[in-house]
Design brief:
92 residues; mainly alpha; elongated
Length: 92
């Protein structure tokens, strides 16, 4: 997809959420929207753009949102939860 169109869409989503709450919450809401509704290839493209161009052309809210997604994509995977202990009295 054309990166200019992705930038435009991210900025429009950012503009919508910027009017509803503070900047940090708006960035989290935009990041959540991109994660939930954008196709993985679209997210990958905007993340690559952010890495290469540092988000040039993105609004502050959209840039913060993409930065959140970028940081999450570079974070090590979470450790699996420990196995559950058997319930007392079960299986006896």
């Amino acid at each position: 997809m054309n990166i200019d169109l992705l930038i435009k869409m991210a900025n429009e989503i950012g503009e919508f959420f910027a009017g509803t709450t503070d900047a940090q919450a708006a960035a989290r809401d935009v990041a959540n929207h991109l994660k939930r509704y954008w196709e993985p290839r679209m997210r990958e493209q905007i993340l690559n753009y952010y890495e290469q161009r540092h988000g040039a052309g993105l609004s502050e809210v959209a840039k913060s949102a993409v930065a959140l997604l970028y940081a999450a994509s570079k974070a090590p995977p979470a450790a699996p939860p420990p196995p559950a202990a058997p319930a007392k009295g079960a299986g006896a």
